[in-house]
Amino acid sequence: MPKIQPAGQRERHPVPPGDYTLMLDEVKLIEQPNRFAEKDEHGVYKATGTTEPPIRPQLVWQFIADKNDPEGDPLEYSMWTGVSYGNERAKLTDLLDQLLPEADEEMKSNLETDTLVGRRFKTKIMLVKNASGEPRPRAMFFEPVKELPV
Predict the structure, then answer these.
(1) 79-128: per-residue pLDDT in tens?
(2) How many C-beta atoms surround the C-beta of residue 103 within 10 A?
(3) Is it the case that residue 1 has pLDDT exceeding 60?
(4) Which of 67, 99, 105, 109 has the greatest number of CB atoms lying within 10 Å of its CB?
(5) What is the Cα–Cα distance from 120 to 21, expressed in whole angstroms?
(6) CB-based contact 93:85 (threshold 8 Å)
(7) In whole angstroms, what is the distance from residue 8 CA to residue 82 CA?
(8) End-to-end CA distance of the chain
């Protein structure tokens, strides 16, 4: 029996720990409230001057694994990053440095993410506790797979 999904959503099959080759399937730009924004002692967000959190853009990187779940559906891995390259502590900087090791800083700063869709990367997925103490899958590294000429 097919699984019913809410409108506009598809069923996700998170990747369990292990070694994989992931293909970048999609990069989506989303905007959502920044729940980590700094507040003053009255609960007012400093960036907005109100109790409403500021909105921040983020990228969602969706990968499809080379392995399927027991029902034959592809396993997926997603990660979220900011939108600015350059800060050495930023997730986007770390990710692009791994996905494009030969590219210079200017290219990574002005990258059109669609040029990466369809590329494949070797990785190891491990469970790492998030800020709430819950184990979540995390890619430990990304190594580009050299495609053979056709």
Answers:
(1) 999 999 999 999 999 999 999 999 999 999 999 999 999 999 999 999 99
(2) 13
(3) no
(4) 99
(5) 6
(6) yes
(7) 24
(8) 40
Beta bridge partners of 60: 28, 80
Tokens standing for 117?
Answer: 């869709």
CA–CA distance, 64 with 73 (Å, rounded to integer): 10
H-helix segments, the chain:
91-99, 105-109
CA dist 142 and 133 (Å) reads 24
Return the H-helix or E-strand segment holding 128.
strand 120-129
Contact yes or no for 119/144 (Cβ under 8 A): yes
CA–CA dist 34, 31 (Å, integer): 9
What the block records as the tokens of 150 is: 């056709």
Distance CA 7, CA 18 (A): 32
Distance CA 83, CA 31 (A): 11
